[in-house]
C-alpha cells in the first residue's frame, strides 16, 4: 500500500556546485516567482482568476514529498485554489504510517495521543479499514463527546467507504444491516451500557473512544464505569486524545498510567514534533492584553490592572474584563478583527473564532462584532438545535466570525480559522491547548501563515502561551537520542468561578506583549518592526511579530536548548537496512539545520556547505560515522547560537 511506504529522506545541497539546491529550501526565489507569474499569464493556473498580491507559488509535486523548489515543478495559484489543493491529500503522514504499524503489531488497547490537527480521525478510520481487511473486525462503534462530532466522524468515514449511523439512539436497539457501525456520544453509552455491551459482542467490533480524557472529567464520573461495562468484551479498542492527560480521581478504563497517574500513550505525536515536521501544524502568536478593570465587592470598589491580579482577585478581575458592557472586550474584538483583515489579504476565506465564557456573553459578543464588521457572525451554542449545522456551514463558507462557548474547543474541524479571542474563564492547560488546536492546522504543505490567538495577560494563560512551542526542542532531543541509541545497539486546574461580585467597568485593552515561538515581543519592538516592514515594502501578510523575530535574530540571536532527553528504545526498528538508518540520520540532520537557520538567520545552503567542507563529503554519500559527526557539530553550533 503506497500510503504506508516510508517517505524518502529529503536531500541536502550537493556541495559548492549546487549552493542552493531546490531541495534545500522551501520558498521560490523572487526571480522564480516572476517566471511562474509570466508562465501563467498573470492568472491562477487552476481557476483562471487574475493573480492579485499575495498569490501563491506552489509546488506541483509537494515539497514535503521531495518535490524540488524549481520553476519546472512550480505553478502560480490564487490562495483559495492552493489551500483547497492541500486539503485533498489522502496519503498518510509519516506519524500516521508509523502509528498504524505499531497498532497492527499490538493487539492490546491502543492510546494514540496526537496534537489537534494532526489527523487522528483519518488515522483511526484507516486503522479500522485495515482491521476489516485483515478480518479482525466486522463492526465499528465510535464514541465522541458531543453530538456535532457524530456527524463529523460519519462524514469523514463515508469518504473512506465506511458508513456510520450518526443518528442512532438507544431506542433503536439494533444497528441497521447496511451500516458498518455507529457514531454515538459518551452520554448515550452511559445511559444504557448493557445495550452497547450486546451490540459490540454481536460481532467482532472495533470501539474508537475519541477524546477519551472526557471519561475522567469530574462532571462525568459515571462515564468511566459505563464504558468498562459496555466495551470490555470488544474485539479491539482504539483510544484517542489531542493532548496528554492524567487522572487524579478515577482511572479511565482501558488506559495505562504511570506512577504519577499520567496516561501512557501507545503512540505520542505532540505539537513540538508536528511543528518541527511543518506538515501538520503552523506557528501561533499570542498577543497578551491587559487594561484597567473595576468591580464592587461587599460594598467596596476595587480597581486594578488585569495583569497585576493575583490568584485571589483574578476571577473577579477577569469577569469585569469579559463583561460586554465594559470597554475591554469590545476593544479586543476590534483588534482581533483588524488582524483578521490582515490575514484575509493573503487568505481570503480566513475566519475568526471567539471562545466565550457563557451563552449570554456569546450572544453579546456577536452583537459587538456585528457593529464592528457590518456582518452578522455565526453563534454556535448548545441550546440551539441547529448548532452543528451552523458550525458545518461556517467551516465551508467565507464569513468572518463564529462565536461559541465550548462546542468548538476540540475535535471540530474548521481549517480556515486563523484568528481567535480567548474570552473563556477556564484556565486549565488542557482546555487552553484544545482551543489553540483550532487555529494551528496547516492547510496544505505550502501554508506559511502564522495563526493569532488574543489572550488576557493573566497567569497561567500567559505561561501556557510561552511553553506551547518549546516542546519543539524536546522533541528534537528525543529523536536524536532514539536514533543514537538504535545505532549504539546495532539497529538504528479548575475553572475560574465568578464570585458574588458586581463587575463595574473596564478600560480599553492595552497590549502587554505578543508571544511567538516562546519569545515575548513588546509593543515598542512591534512598532519598530512595523516601521521596518513598511520601509522595505514587506506585504501586509507578514505580521509585526514575525518581523520583530527576524530583527532579533539579526542581532543577538536566539537561544535554542539542546538538552538530551532519554527516550525508550523500541526493538521494532531492529533489522533495518543501512540505507534506512542513514536516511533517518539525514532527516534528523535536516531538522537540526532548520533549527540552526531559525536561530541564526543563516541560509540552509551555507550550513550544509560548511558541513560538507568539514567532513569532506556530502550527506547523500556520507557514512554513518560522518553523519553522526554532523549531528555532534550541529549540537555545538546550536549551543553557541
3D architecture notes:
The chain is an alpha/beta fold and 641 residues long. Helix 16 runs antiparallel to helix 19 and helix 17 (523-536) packs across helix 18. Mean pLDDT is 79; it is low at 1-23, 491-499 and 556-575.
Major sheet, described briefly? 8 strands, mixed
Q: Helicity, in percent?
A: 25-40%
What is the 3D form? globular
Number of strands: 20
Strand content: 15-25%
- Calculate Rg over CA atoms: 25 Å
Assign the structural class, choosing from mainly alpha, mainly beta, alpha/beta, alpha+beta, or little secondary structure.
alpha/beta
Strand order of the largest sheet: 14-15-13-16-17-10-19-20
What's the end-to-end separation, in Å? 43 Å
Low-confidence stretches: 1-23, 491-499, 556-575
pLDDT averaged over residues: 79
Task: Please work out how many helical segments DSSP would assign.
Answer: 21
What brief labels describe this structure?
20 strands, 641 residues, seven-stranded parallel beta sheet, eight-stranded mixed beta sheet, single chain, alpha/beta
Please summarize what this structure is:
This protein is of the alpha/beta class and 641 residues long. It contains 21 helices and 20 strands.
SSE map:
Elements: H1 30-39, E1 56-59, E2 74-77, H2 79-87, H3 94-105, E3 110-114, H4 120-133, E4 139-144, H5 147-159, E5 164-165, E6 181-185, H6 186-191, H7 193-202, E7 205-209, H8 223-231, E8 236-241, E9 267-269, H9 271-277, E10 284-290, E11 292-297, E12 300-305, H10 311-322, H11 328-344, E13 351-356, H12 359-373, E14 378-380, H13 387-396, E15 401-404, E16 417-423, H14 429-436, E17 451-456, H15 461-467, H16 471-488, E18 502-506, E19 510-516, E20 519-521, H17 523-536, H18 544-554, H19 578-600, H20 604-615, H21 624-640
Parallel strand pairs: 3-8, 3-9, 4-6, 4-7, 5-6, 7-8, 10-17, 13-15, 13-16, 14-15, 16-17
Antiparallel strand pairs: 1-2, 10-19, 11-12, 11-18, 19-20
Amino acid at each position: 500500500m503506497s500510503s504506508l511506504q516510508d517517505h524518502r529522506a529529503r536531500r541536502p545541497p550537493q556541495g559548492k556546485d549546487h549552493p542552493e539546491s531546490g531541495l534545500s529550501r522551501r520558498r521560490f526565489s523572487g526571480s522564480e516567482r516572476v517566471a511562474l507569474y509570466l508562465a501563467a499569464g498573470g492568472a491562477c493556473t487552476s481557476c483562471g482568476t487574475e493573480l492579485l498580491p499575495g498569490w501563491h507559488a506552489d509546488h506541483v509535486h509537494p515539497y514535503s514529498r521531495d518535490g524540488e523548489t524549481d520553476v519546472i515543478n512550480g505553478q502560480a495559484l490564487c490562495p483559495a485554489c492552493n489551500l483547497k489543493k492541500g486539503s485533498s491529500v489522502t496519503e498518510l503522514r509519516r506519524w500516521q504510517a508509523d502509528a498504524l504499524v505499531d497498532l497492527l503489531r499490538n493487539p492490546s488497547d491502543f492510546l494514540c495521543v496526537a496534537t489537534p490537527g494532526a489527523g487522528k480521525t483519518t488515522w483511526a478510520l484507516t486503522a479500522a479499514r485495515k482491521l476489516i481487511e485483515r478480518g479482525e473486525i466486522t463492526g465499528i462503534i465510535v464514541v465522541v463527546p458531543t453530538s456535532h462530532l457524530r456527524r463529523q466522524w460519519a462524514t469523514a468515514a463515508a469518504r473512506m467507504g465506511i458508513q456510520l449511523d450518526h443518528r442512532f439512539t438507544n431506542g433503536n436497539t439494533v444497528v441497521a444491516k447496511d451500516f458498518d457501525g455507529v457514531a454515538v456520544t459518551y452520554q448515550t453509552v452511559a445511559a444504557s451500557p448493557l445495550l452497547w455491551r450486546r451490540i459490540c459482542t454481536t460481532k467482532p467490533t472495533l470501539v474508537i473512544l475519541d477524546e477519551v480524557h472526557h471519561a475522567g472529567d469530574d462532571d462525568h464520573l459515571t462515564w468511566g464505569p459505563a464504558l468498562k461495562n459496555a466495551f470490555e468484551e470488544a474485539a479491539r479498542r482504539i483510544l484517542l486524545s489531542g493532548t496528554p492527560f492524567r487522572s487524579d480521581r478515577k482511572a479511565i478504563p482501558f488506559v495505562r498510567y504511570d506512577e504519577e497517574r499520567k496516561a501512557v500513550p501507545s503512540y505520542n505525536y505532540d505539537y513540538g514534533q508536528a511543528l518541527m515536521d511543518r506538515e501538520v501544524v503552523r506557528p501561533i502568536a499570542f498577543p497578551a492584553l491587559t487594561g484597567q478593570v473595576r468591580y464592587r465587592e461587599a460594598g467596596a470598589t476595587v480597581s486594578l490592572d488585569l495583569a497585576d491580579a493575583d490568584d485571589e482577585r483574578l476571577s473577579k478581575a477577569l469577569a469585569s474584563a469579559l463583561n460586554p458592557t465594559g470597554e475591554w472586550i469590545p476593544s479586543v474584538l476590534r483588534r482581533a478583527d483588524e488582524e483578521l483583515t490582515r490575514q484575509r489579504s493573503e487568505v481570503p476565506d480566513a475566519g475568526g473564532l471567539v471562545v466565550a465564557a457563557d451563552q449570554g456573553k456569546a450572544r453579546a459578543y456577536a452583537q459587538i462584532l456585528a457593529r464592528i464588521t457590518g456582518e452578522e457572525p455565526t453563534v454556535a451554542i448548545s441550546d440551539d438545535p441547529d448548532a452543528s449545522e451552523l458550525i458545518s456551514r461556517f467551516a465551508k463558507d467565507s464569513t468572518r466570525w463564529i462565536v461559541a462557548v465550548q462546542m468548538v474547543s476540540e475535535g471540530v474541524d474548521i481549517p480556515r480559522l486563523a484568528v481567535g479571542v480567548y474570552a473563556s474563564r477556564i484556565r486549565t492547560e488542557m482546555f487552553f491547548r484544545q482551543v489553540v488546536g483550532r487555529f494551528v492546522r496547516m492547510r496544505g504543505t505550502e501554508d506559511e501563515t502564522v495563526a493569532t490567538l488574543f489572550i488576557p495577560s493573566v497567569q497561567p494563560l500567559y505561561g501556557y502561551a510561552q511553553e506551547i512551542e518549546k516542546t519543539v526542542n524536546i522533541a528534537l532531543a528525543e529523536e536524536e537520542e532514539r536514533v543514537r541509541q538504535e545505532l549504539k545497539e546495532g539497529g538504528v486546574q479548575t475553572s475560574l468561578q465568578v464570585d458574588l461580585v458586581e463587575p463595574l467597568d473596564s478600560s480599553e485593552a492595552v497590549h502587554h506583549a505578543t508571544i511567538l515561538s516562546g519569545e515575548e515581543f513588546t509593543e515598542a519592538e512591534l512598532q519598530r518592526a512595523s516601521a521596518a516592514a513598511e520601509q522595505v515594502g514587506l506585504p501586509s501578510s507578514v505580521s509585526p511579530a514575525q518581523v520583530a523575530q527576524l530583527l532579533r535574530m539579526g542581532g543577538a540571536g536566539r537561544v535554542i536548548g539542546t538538552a538530551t532527553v532519554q527516550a525508550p528504545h523500541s526493538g521494532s526498528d531492529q533489522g533495518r537496512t543501512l540505507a534506512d538508518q542513514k536516511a533517518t540520520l539525514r532527516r534528523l540532520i535536516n531538522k537540526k539545520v532548520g533549527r540552526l537557520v531559525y536561530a541564526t538567520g543563516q541560509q540552509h545552503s551555507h550550513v550544509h556547505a560548511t558541513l560538507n567542507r568539514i567532513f569532506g563529503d556530502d550527506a547523500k554519500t556520507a557514512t554513518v560515522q560522518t553523519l553522526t559527526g554532523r549531528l555532534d557539530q550541529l549540537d555545538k553550533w546550536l549551543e553557541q547560537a
